[in-house]
Amino acid sequence: MAAPNTLGIDFGTSNSAAGVTVAGRPWLIDVEAGETTLPTAVFFDHGASSMRIGRDATQALIEGDEGRFMRALKSLLGTPLLREKRRIYKQEMDFIDIIARFLRALKTRAETATHQDFTHALSGRPVLFHSQDAARNAQAKIDLRDCYLRAGFADVQFMYEPEAALRATAPEAGLGLVVDIGGGTSDYTVFEQQGDGTTRVLISHGLRLGGTDFDRRLSIDHVMPLLGRGSAIRNSFGQGTLPAPNRIFNDLATWQMIPFLYSADTRRKARDLAQHAVEPAKLTRLVSVLEDELGHDVAFAVERGKILANQPDHPAPRIDLKVLERGLTVPLSSEALNRSLSDQVSEITDHATQALTLAEIAPPRINRIVLVGGSSLLDAIATDLRQLCPNARIYNANAMTAVADGLALASASAFA
Ligand SMILES: Nc1ncnc2c1ncn2[C@@H]1O[C@H](COP(=O)(O)OP(=O)(O)OP(=O)(O)O)[C@@H](O)[C@H]1O
Ligand SMILES: [Mg+2]
Question: Which family does it belong to (predicted)?
Answer without folding.
Answer: Belongs to the heat shock protein 70 family.
